[in-house]
Backbone:
């Protein structure tokens, strides 16, 4: 009710940031991901996926960016070096929700 503080429960949708065909020389690679203007300057949670059979993505760094820039550099670690020269990789982001919301006063 009035001036009551509650955590934000509503989940915002993931935003597709792009698909790239990347070349890997081993299990570690770096990619540059452009961010849409509406996501810039805000905290953003990032994740990625590899579209290859028998290859898993073990780690994505950074996982959370405090202030999103026009382009972010992601460092990825794969469980095994890919057998193809180039392979598809997709990246998605989720805006980190505000931790606390305060309601307006309600007259009862």
Residues:
């Amino acid at each position: 009710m009035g001036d009551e503080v509650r955590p934000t429960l509503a989940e915002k949708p993931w935003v597709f940031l792009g698909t790239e065909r990347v070349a890997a020389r081993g299990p570690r690679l770096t990619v540059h991901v452009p961010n849409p203007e509406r996501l810039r300057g805000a905290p953003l949670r990032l994740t990625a996926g590899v579209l290859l059979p028998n290859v898993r993505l073990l780690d994505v760094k950074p996982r959370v960016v405090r202030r999103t820039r026009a382009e972010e550099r992601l460092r990825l670690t794969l469980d095994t070096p890919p057998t193809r020269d180039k392979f598809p990789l997709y990246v998605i982001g989720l805006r980190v929700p505000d931790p606390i919301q305060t309601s307006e006063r309600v007259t009862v």
Remarks:
- The CA atoms of residues 32 and 73 lie 5 Å apart.
